[in-house]
Amino acid sequence: MAEPLAPEETGAPGPFGSGGRTLLAGWGRTSPSYATVVEPDGVDALEAALGAPTTNVIARGLGRSYGDAAQCAGGLVIETAALAGISDVEAETGLVTVGGGVSLDDLIASTLPHGWFVPVTPGTRQVSIGGALAADIHGKNHHRDSSFATHVRRFSLATPTGTVEVSPASDPELFWATAGGMGLTGVVTEATLSLLPVETSWMSVDTERFDDLDGVMAAMESGDDGYRYSVAWVDCMTRGARLGRGVLTRGEHATAKELPAAKAGSALTAPGSPRLKIPRPAPPGLLNRASIAAFNEAWFRRAPRHRMGELHPLASFFHPLDGVSDWNLLYGPRGFVQYQFAVAASESETVRRAIEALSAARVPSFLAVLKRFGPGDPGPLSFPMAGWTLALDLPVGPSALPGVLDHLDEMVAAAGGRVYLAKDARLRPELLGAMYPRLGEFEATAARVDPDGVLASDLSRRLGIGAATNHAKEHV
Amino acid sequence: MNDAFGKPQSLILLGGTSDIALAFAERLVADRCRTVVLAGRDRTGMEAAARHLLADGATSVPIVDADATDVASAAQVVDDAFKAAEGDVDVLVVAVGLLGHQSADERDPGRVAEVTTVNYTWPAATLARAAERFAEQGHGRILVLSSVAGVRVRRANYVYGASKAGLDGYALGLSEALRGSGVALQVIRPGFVHSKMTEGLDAAPFATTPDVVADAMVGALTSNAQVVWVPGALRFVFGVLRNVPQAAWRRLPG
Q: Between chain B's N and C termini, which has fewer beta carbons within 10 Å?
């Protein structure tokens, strides 16, 4: 058993200096803050760090949350890289037990050669298992396979009141509060999840190009059910008749029979490492209205109008940006925000109005990702809900941007929708309750394992998640 | 916590009835600032300001009694204000000040001490405590209202000007000391401001208003500038005036 971390070991701050603190930011690099960072070398050291905290504490995996979810100004940030280990996959069930700090990249590298793929993957493999559960991540198959937590059978959760073993049957409240709970119920040290059997590491992809948003949405509504994976890239900078033109890609894991003989040798190959690296932040303004519009145009033009059954390597289908490491630096010193919202299927008009608002404000926006969600899972803070979701990458800089996003928040909240907390860095706190009406339920469950409100992040402090509980406690 | 665009959600005003500070608070409340702690001596004035800010959308506007002539109280006022904020404090504004009456004050040691205390000693002591609190918190921003009167002190208002010079220098030093702590300190240097404080005085060239100063302070929230001149042209004017020979400086009007 490791000794508890004393303040002097973690680097107590000097008079005003950062005194052993580290500057941490999310993937969007917008709101950096200083915290004391520890990397416990195992579960015992982790429990010790959580057991005797003098400040707020939050876990941090690979730092791919876009906003401020995995940082804690002035507090303690627990990095989870040492929570390693990948078990053998049970041949009958596809179950695998994985350390909370293991990346999807490592998991895929270890299991894909044996014919197993992760049940849900976001647009990058560089997320940890703990982070995947804490954000209850979704992928292109949400309409069919739901989000990450649905495929998790059990996990171990280190909390300020001790480590607990959690499954949907043993403690449904804590299980589902942790799914999408942004780390505010504890640190996932290990999880067991079920993998998807695949015959090849190739995807059979159908691509269609549409000149307007209606075409994209109609095709998704009528045809998505025929595919495991579906996503559309939509151009939010076009106006008028071409508003929301897009490229719809849908696919299935290619079967061994579908592979030509030439590819049979690479039938089950794990994705490679990034080929390119961005060495430092780009100059401000590299990604501006003109350059982004040109990129969107090129992307649209290069897509085939209609092509069926094309074979793509799995990595280029799921994780195109993983080919360039640190691509977020392209956005320059001020960084970028990612805005993602979900609304019910009946609210497709809200999606259109959102794209219109962005186009009218003339804020540059990279190709937006449009997707249909299936029903949400029981997590009170889990993001997905049946209907539509739209995600946008927006460089910080244009003065109209904060106001446009505030306007979108109100539209989304009025439509009964919500924004994704794993990406948020700027929601007006008073809208959180409207977007996540079961917030109180979440806070009550979190308070059960964290009665002193020790678990907190810049995100939870900014949005006031758990504030009611903490204030109540102060006044006792 | 600030959001991705540097927009604050909570604010402390030391000088809770200052026209400039309240104009700044109004702007932040119109966005997403919901907590404004007012610290000052004029309780009636602060209560009126609180009603106004609450009507504009603030949800919590606690009032903390603060007397800038009582140097021993400085640290306690900062602690009281942080406590009243009930959570993270994103921005603290130091806007206490006493213009005084130069011609009467300059031969009255008691008045010289009072102006110096209110403009320099008490603010400096509160800044020492505020810097500590913000560094503990790991983030935050301090805006210190200085004045061009302190950039080069003049015969016509040296009691006030020298106290602002002291504050300005202290704040710049503290700003350096805070580098790397996650806490920013910025010095706001307005020219002559038409406000309660200057009522009845003749305006100097480049005179401005509390609204213009407040806009510049909002702009400072997303800049790294250590010093913000209001209006901006004063930076260049004083670039020259700072170096004018004393004999010529003495003869400048005002």
A: C
